[in-house]
Design goal:
Elements (H helix, E strand, L loop, with lengths): L8 H11 L4 H19 L9 E2 L10 E9 L3 E10 L4 E10 L2 H4 L3 H18 L7 E8 L3 E5 L2 E4 L16 H11 L5 E7 L1 H10 L5 E7 L3 E8 L14 E5 L12 H9 L7 H6 L1 H17 L20 H8 L15 H33 L7 E6 L1 H5 L3 H13 L6 E5 L3 H16 L10 E2 L2
Parallel strand pairs: 2-5, 5-8, 5-14, 9-12, 12-13
Antiparallel strand pairs: 1-11, 2-3, 3-4, 6-7, 9-10, 10-11
Helix pairs in contact: 1-11, 2-11, 4-5, 6-14, 9-10, 9-11, 10-11, 11-13
The protein binds alpha-D-glucopyranose (GLC).
Length: 454
């Protein structure tokens, strides 16, 4: 669209509305393309959906004990001790949270794993855990990993702003185990490696077997579901019976209409031309999309009277939390040194936040719809979808937009889809996966193969 055609505020806003729109026709197209890409991904053919076998099936609900979990997913590391009662109930016996410094995210791989090992050491010290014994640990690693077994897998590529060197192409369990040994923590054995979506699905399934999808809508976005092993054509060695959870890595879905702001954001990102869906949907990027629009509107004299041109100049300075504040009826202007913002400008920013977040929720809704219909084209069963992440949990109106898309697409059948918030699923689910791994180990004489639970 030419500059002259969009130089009044109203026409610019309706231009934005149209380039960020996701119509019901678009949603149907997303579903069809998703199905094609899922099928290619499962067959090991070229696809923007990686469809990664997790080597985990749905849990039985009887897994029991207290397990150690390391959760590395975004800007935080969590070390947890999770208690499972064998009857579908879980509790966190202890949790420690550590922030990952920016320089670690983008520094040397060994340094990040050494830092993680230090965090685990601090957790042991804080909780006075005996270091003369051996322990099993389940590792939630929320990045695309090509798993070769339950406890090994190579990082395919970093996402969510990480670029640490020496990790891509390597086994992340081996890297963690080496760091644990360097830090004299070799008595900890990594028995399971799981994506956060898989953890979330397993955590919900533990108490509710009708759950058949795990979704993350937070800093990043992704989903998993239990697939018939016979349909995972790229892994014929898996055998033909039963189900295995498949990590879709839907953040990589590339068949979406990107507008000029999406394209610019993508080009400037640390992983250009990758994770298209994630960059249009997830919490890491919504603020940055809005910032890019704000900059353009200031340049055109359509916001803040064109006077605050430097206020939004730094990339990623506007966060999804800021947009969420606006959606709650508050604002973020003070954080950007803006005083006396006019009512018109406030209204414009409100519109912009609505436009950017609504598109995110609608794409998420279409992607959920695609996975549900892949599993059950005729809605023969109920589907409980376990969802974690601040976007889903906290962004005002976000859940309603997802439900709205499902209703528009499926009418009455949409009632068969239940969206359920599952907090901390990534950690709890990994503990359950760890329990399954521990119980599958052949038992020799003595106590639990010499391994101790915490
Ligand atoms: C990114 C990661 C994916 C993870 C998601 C949510 O998309 O690649 O593995 O599940 O973020 O944390």
């Amino acid at each position: 669209m030419g500059k002259n055609q969009v130089n009044t505020l109203d026409s610019f806003l309706s231009h934005l509305e149209s380039i960020f729109s996701v119509t019901i026709h678009d949603a149907k197209e997303i579903i069809d393309t998703f199905h094609r890409e899922m099928s290619s991904g499962l067959a090991g053919m070229k696809s923007s959906l990686k469809m990664i076998p997790s080597f985990v099936g749905p849990p039985s609900g009887t897994e029991k004990g207290k397990y150690l979990v390391l959760d590395l997913g975004g800007t935080n590391i969590r070390v947890l001790a999770v208690e499972l009662d064998g009857k579908g109930n879980t509790s966190m016996a202890a949790v420690s949270r550590f922030v990952i410094p920016q320089e670690m995210m983008c520094g040397a791989g060994d340094a990040i794993f050494d830092y993680i090992a230090d965090c685990i050491k601090l957790f042991f010290e804080k909780n006075c855990i005996d270091r003369q014994k051996t322990y099993d640990l389940a590792f939630t690693f929320s990045f695309p990993v090509e798993q070769s077994s339950l406890a090994s897998g190579k990082l395919i590529g970093w996402t969510k702003g990480f670029t640490a060197s020496g990790v891509v192409g390597n086994d992340v369990v081996a890297l963690l185990s080496a760091a644990l040994r360097r830090k004299e923590m070799g008595f900890i054995h990594v028995v399971a490696l799981a994506n956060d979506t898989v953890g979330t699905l397993v955590a919900k399934c533990y108490s509710d077997p009708s759950c058949d999808m795990g979704v993350i809508l937070g800093t990043g976005t992704n989903a998993c579901y239990p697939e018939k092993v016979a349909r995972i054509l790229k892994c014929p060695v898996l055998g033909l019976s039963g189900k295995m959870i498949v990590n879709i890595e839907w953040g990589g879905f590339s068949q979406l209409k990107m507008n000029i702001y999406d394209q610019d954001l993508d080009c400037a990102s640390r992983n250009a031309d990758k994770q298209h869906l994630e960059k249009m949907v997830s919490g890491m990027y919504l603020g940055e999309i809005a910032r890019r629009v704000i900059v353009e509107m200031m340049n055109r004299g359509l916001l803040f009277k064109g006077t605050n041109l430097s206020a939004f100049s730094r990339e990623y300075m506007l966060h999804t939390e800021h947009l969420s504040l606006v959606a709650q009826g508050s604002d973020f202007f003070a954080d950007f040194g803006l005083r006396d913002v006019s009512e018109v400008d406030r209204g414009t920013i409100r519109e912009l936040c609505r436009i950017v977040s609504t598109r995110s929720a609608k794409i998420a809704g279409a992607a959920i719809a695609a996975v549900v219909t892949w599993m059950d084209a005729n809605f023969e069963s109920d589907h409980t979808i376990a969802i974690d992440g601040t976007l889903f949990e906290k962004y005002p109106g976000y859940q309603d937009h997802i439900v709205g898309v499902l209703r528009e697409l499926f009418g009455e059948c949409a009632k068969r889809i239940r969206l359920e918030l599952v907090r901390d699923g990534s950690g709890i689910g990994s503990a359950i996966i760890g329990a399954v791994a521990a119980s599958a180990r052949p038992v020799s004489s003595g106590d639990d193969c010499g391994r101790h639970r915490i």
